[in-house]
Design goal:
This protein is α/β, with parallel strands linked by helices. Helix 10 links the parallel strand 6 and strand 7. The strands form four sheets. The protein has a twelve-stranded mixed β-sheet, with helices on both faces. The chain folds into two domains: 351 residues, Rossmann fold; 100 residues, ANL, C-terminal domain (GMP Synthetase, Chain A, domain 3, 2-Layer Sandwich). The longest helix has 22 residues.
Amino acid sequence: MNIYAPLCRNIVAPLWARREASLYLRHLAFLEASQYRPLEEIKLDQLARLKALLSHAHENSLFYREKWQNIGFHPEDLKCLADLDNLPMLTKDDIRNEKDRITARNVPTASLIPRETSGSTGVPLRFFVDDASQQFKRACTIRSNQWTGWRLGEKAAAIWGNPEPGKNFRAWLRNLLLDRYDYLDTLKMDKDDMLAFYQRQIQRKPTLLFGHAHSLYLFALFLDSERLPVFPVKGIISTAMVLHDFERNKIESVFGRKVSNRYGCEEVSLIASECEAHEGLHANLDTLIVELVREGRAAPADAPGDIVVTDLTNYGMPFIRYRVGDVGLMSRRSCSCGRSLPLLERVEGRIADYVVTPDGNFISGISLTENFATRLPEVRQMQIVQEKIDLLVFNIVRGEGFNKDSEDRIASLVKERFGAKMTYRLHELTHIPQEASGKYRFCISKVSHEFNDH
């Protein structure tokens, strides 16, 4: 038994929360009980919080006030959740072009936390989350983590890009004493790194394995091909991209544990997650209103629709009817676990290919958006296509300020991220065409990704 885990849960975590003036543990206690409330009670709570959010946005966000005035809407007109259909949707272009006007003018700047993501499109998106919202979202994430059997205070292993711990002493200390994560960076997934990560976990004995769907799959392939006995975990969480059945089956067969699929985005955090019953993804109605929209109206039952979310907690920069960019299907079933949170049957989209380098490293497309595209603010849009093991094509749309220095920075980043043996070509476009699904793919690989190929 790990004697530090209950110490961390009952002493370290409360003391750290008090030091940070964070209410996340109080939120977590509420959420652990609220997940079993009747659905109608949850929806009444959502309606009350939605009315408060709309009033706040109308008073303090120039963007929403103007949008709603143009259609003759006032927050007092909203009588039920279905009335959301009457409001315009928030797009990624709105956030890029109108960030300052969306941001609430009455929220202190000191409480606004800047965030940035380029998602799967390769186009940077910058926005704010207020601190109170972040703490509530943190509690929601911990609750869904605990559905796997892991408990707060226990060790975790993560296959993730751009890990935070180690960037400064405070982050290192926090991770050591509180978060207790150990990382395999998806920017470098060669056999040596995966073996070193594996050997650390054999010693650490984490109870949770967390990571990008395809990264977990690659790690499971590695363990299987090397015939390594797995480190036992209580749960495995897959996130950040679509979890395909062949990936789920391989991960589960190697580890002997069910995979918990999770869906979210940086802008609003956790959207839906599987529980221990694995019968669908519970929509996170404690933080969000989740809609499926088709042709501007609510999608019919049993029909897929665009996922549109309203963040009920972020007053600093309200996200009201935000079109995430993915497609989902709602389930009519109730989960056998007894939780009243409705189920998403499945989520489509979020497929990011990997780049495999001539040296045998595997680099995820998700990691590249955060560690490559965001380093080039003068590039309006980028798409990476791996044509051969040693050849990348960068489809780019120039933005303001793109010049020779930009090209030199790309050359430097290619060498840094992909190694000296990788070659590349720049291909300038006026726009990058979307897929038939309506999605953009940031990273496309035409190279086989089997370990025995290299």
